[in-house]
Amino acid sequence: MPTTIPPSALKQGRDFLDLDRIEPQELFAILRHAHAMKKNPLAFRPMEGKTLALIFEKPSTRTRVSFEVAMRQLGGQVTTLSGAEIQLGRGETIADTGRVLSRYVDVIMLRTFAEHKLYELASGASVPIINGLTDHSHPCQVMADLMTAEERLGSLKGKNVVWVGDGGDNVLISWIHAAPIFDFTLRIACPPAFVPPTEALIAAQKKGAKVTVTPDMDVTDGADVVLTDCWVSMHNSDAAARHEMLMPYQVNADLMKRAKPHAIFMHCLPAHRGEEVTDDVIDGAQSAVWDEAENRLHAHKAILCWCLNVLPTA
Ligand code: CP
Ligand code: NVA
């Protein structure tokens, strides 16, 4: 299990594995630098001579391109690999792959299925490992989401954040991790068949998070932020049942009317128009999804610099 696999004792730098495993002040610093890097995107090049490896066991558009551009704008190099092309867990242990890659590259991002693979890689690698999405969580996405919400609304402290849709979604779990750190109220509307993992809710509540789960859609009343994601994630196989049970949880114009007038809509993308969100919402004035996608680039730069201990001192 993840918590029983320690990081390599030889670790140079810091892993970015999940938001609930990183000190709040570190996350605040990453976000502060992400905002600053957005204002001056080509000014800071601490990655000269350094290489980032991106490993994908699932498809990606945003994560792949934004990490590639981020590393290059920081002055570094990138090698992008698909899990199927390399020997990841194919006889060689994943920890051994981490040991070997650490002799070539300076930081590794992995997008995979079960999160234990990420922790195995981190246990063998002596360079930092970044979680580029697992079945369980998507912390890089939520750093960009938090950055976007801060741009539009200022601090999230005391704000009403509402999730509508799949309660087991990996992006939502990273939002649950963020709730006690950024001190917002998180209300989750989802069908009883697709609720968040109890242990994630309990862990967040123990840290003081104000998180509630309900099947009722009235949670959107007075929302500052409305979030959703696809109904069928890359690791889900029960598509028909999901569509049927999640249809009442579509984010549409009627639902957005219940939120505050200044409320924003966010979605990690890719969106399935006409399913979890309607065109009028994603293309409407309250939608922040394109800024959210752009902010992956700026957030990833700050995450890479944090992992390698080269964040600017200012
Ligand atoms: N939001 C997100 O992670 O997108 P990709 O799957 O395209 O990387
Ligand atoms: N929940 C989605 C996120 C995609 C970025 C999935 O895992 O497929």
The count of DSSP E runs of length 2 or more, i.e. the number of strands, is 9
Ranges where pLDDT stays below 50 over 5 or more residues in a row are none
- Sketch the topology as an H/E string, one letter per element: HEHEHEHEHEHEHEEHHEHH
Q: Quick check: average pLDDT? A: 96
Q: Which percent band covers the strand fraction?
A: 5-15%
Largest beta-sheet characterization: 5 strands, parallel
What does this structure look like?
This protein is α/β, with parallel strands linked by helices. The strands form 2 sheets. The chain has a 5-stranded parallel beta sheet, covered by helices on one side. The protein has a 4-stranded parallel beta sheet with strand order 2-1-3-4, with helices on both faces. The mean pLDDT is 96. α1 (24-39) crosses α11 (289-307) and α2 packs across α11 (289-307). The chain starts with 23 loop residues before the first helix and ends in a 7-residue tail after the last helix. The chain has 11 helices and 9 strands. It is globular. 38% of the residues lie in helices and 14% in strands. Bound molecules: phosphoric acid mono(formamide)ester and norvaline (NVA). Residues 133, 169-171, 229-230, 233-234, 268 line the site of norvaline.
Tell me the layout of helices and strands.
Elements: H1 24-39, E1 51-56, H2 62-73, E2 77-82, H3 94-101, E3 107-111, H4 115-124, E4 129-131, H5 139-153, E5 160-164, H6 170-182, E6 185-189, H7 198-206, E7 210-214, E8 225-228, H8 239-246, H9 253-258, E9 264-267, H10 279-282, H11 289-307
Parallel strand pairs: 1-2, 1-3, 3-4, 5-6, 5-8, 6-7, 8-9
The structure holds phosphoric acid mono(formamide)ester (CP) and norvaline (NVA).
Norvaline binds at residues 133, 169-171, 229-230, 233-234, 268.
